[in-house]
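Final report, Chapter 2: Outcomes

The project's central promise was a pipeline that accepts a single protein chain and returns its three-dimensional structure in a standardized token representation, suitable for archiving and comparison. That pipeline is now operational. To close this chapter, we reproduce one record exactly as it appears in the project archive, with the input sequence first and the structure output second.
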Amino acid sequence: MTDRRRNIFVLAIVLGLVLISLVVVAGIPGTKVKPKKTRLGLDLKGGVELTYLAKATAQSKVTPESLDRAIEIMEKRVNQLGVAEPEIQRTGSNQIDVALPDVSNAERAQEQVGKTAQLHFYDWEPNVIGPSGQPAPSEGTVTGDGSVGGAGGAASGLPEYQAVLRALKRPPILRKNDTTLALGCTPAQAQGCIYGQWYLLDTTSQKVLRGPEDTVANLYADGYRPPAGAKTKTVRVNPGTVLAQASSETDPKSGKVLQASPESWYVLNDNPVLNGTDITHPTQSFESGAGSTGGPDVTFGFSSSGGAIFQRVTREIARRGSPP
């Protein structure tokens, strides 16, 4: 093959590759080949990049498995930010890189992704709110207990939109142990202090578009725009009331998980009996032994005061019957 023919052959291959690339990017009119969006990285699109360094504690070591679990948690939190095409990946033996394109509020992103989870214990039955706006401990359709007052179980809760409407009927209840109140904060929320939780509703589709958030501004953070045709309404659930989603729906006979995150929400009187300061030495492991599913298993202890409270509350629950 002469040099001229070889050059023509190479040029033809290059032109072919260019044409294929144009087809993938732009699509072909009148065909099923659809255009493909160009994905811009942080250097072109802008955004926030966070790097987390994992450190071992007395209770847990840094392992690939522990990093993977941390990534799963971060992914759930990033989804709450409404970020399109985030990148969360493990780098090296002890680092996690989080890239959030188009995110402008770096402080909010850092708080949402990297905050320490808080564990709160509620005495469930006396605190689940019914249609009247008051606790209804004996109604199974309110508490999720299938053994009393009709149908129950994890799926007996409300759609999130309806749960928010029920919670809105409740006045502020200001307690020292409220989880959605910064002591001393007022409804004006000077300097962004926490006073309840904000939600953005679409009254047309009866869906929750965003929330819960600490401030109205956070509902529209990072340039969020409601979908076309939505009739939006911004509402605040007052301190003293929170929403909780059923974690899973299981078959009562086999114990098999039927639905991991059902659209089943409960309205709670925000009166936890224990919180994170009462817990000591939390350790995550995995279930083992005959009949186990191999799922995560968390063990922990209590402080002296926390242990006394836990003993008292569980005694009260045992006296009135099993919880849902």
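Archive annotation: The longest strand covers residues 279-286.
This record, like all others produced under the grant, will remain available to the consortium after the project formally closes.
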